[in-house]
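User: Let's play a game. I give you a shape written as tokens, and you guess the letters that built it. Ready? Here's round one.
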């Protein structure tokens, strides 16, 4: 299938950065819920190193190991927000937005580790180049705006909002243009997603128990942790010379697996 590079570039350089900054403008932080982003970071870092070790043990191609490392830890923020709102309304939405603050650590760190596996040596990145990438610059800017309580002009907020609304259609097009249907439901892709889901479920449950979270917050935390993968990992994978088609397949499988999981979560709720 044709490589639609213009869509990937638009997502990488414009849409995702705009959406990240816009999301940071709408955060209502509650220190009591600090366990949510901490859980995301713990699970993300664990998955990065578990799947790196696993990929090497299974002798996977290097560019697929990198794609896996970059894709597995990052959740789909839009799906996470939707789950929170459906289960607990505005309160659930706020908790899920706070959960995705973990992207401040998870995205740059996964990119740093994954870049070692690029098939193009010129794409291999160090920490400084990662920090100045469009997505991570947006994370930094959004964080500063949030921490310093900087007031943004309304017209800029509207522009960021409009750009953010373009994520879903562009991701659908990008995902469709990236997936190789032959071998999509391979044993490898399905096994990786099942393992990722199992790790996220167990770790988030243990953290919830140790933190004495309420039943509802425990369900929310687990739902966020096992949500579908974010396409942002696929976009970054393409930019740094990894197997982004394999990454897209992982994202697609995670979406399929999410439906029965949501059914179970709805019953538990």
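Assistant: Ready! My guess for every position:
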């Amino acid at each position: 299938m044709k490589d639609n590079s213009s869509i990937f570039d638009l997502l990488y350089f414009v849409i995702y950065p705009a959406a990240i900054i816009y999301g940071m403008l709408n955060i209502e932080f509650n220190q009591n819920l600090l366990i949510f982003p901490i859980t995301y970071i713990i699970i993300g870092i664990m998955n990065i190193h578990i799947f790196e070790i696993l990929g090497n043990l299974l002798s996977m191609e290097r560019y697929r190991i990198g794609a896996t490392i970059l894709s597995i830890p990052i959740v789909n923020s839009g799906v996470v927000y939707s789950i929170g709102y459906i289960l607990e309304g505005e309160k659930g939405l706020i908790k899920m937005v706070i959960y995705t603050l973990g992207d401040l650590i998870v995205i740059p760190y996964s990119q740093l580790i994954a870049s070692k596996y690029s098939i193009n040596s010129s794409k291999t990145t160090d920490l400084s180049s990662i920090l100045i990438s469009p997505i991570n610059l947006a994370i930094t800017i959004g964080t500063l705006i949030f921490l310093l309580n900087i007031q943004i002009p309304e017209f800029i907020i509207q522009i960021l909002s409009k750009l953010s609304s373009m994520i879903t259609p562009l991701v659908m097009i990008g995902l469709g243009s990236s997936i190789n249907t032959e071998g999509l439901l391979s044993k490898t892709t399905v096994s990786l997603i099942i393992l990722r889901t199992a790790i996220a479920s167990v770790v988030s449950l243990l953290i919830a128990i140790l933190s004495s979270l309420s039943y509802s917050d425990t369900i929310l935390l687990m739902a966020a942790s096992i949500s579908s993968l974010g396409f942002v990992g696929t976009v970054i994978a393409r930019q740094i010379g990894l197997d982004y088609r394999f990454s897209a397949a992982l994202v697609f499988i995670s979406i399929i697996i999410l439906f029965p999981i949501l059914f179970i979560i709805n019953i538990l709720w």
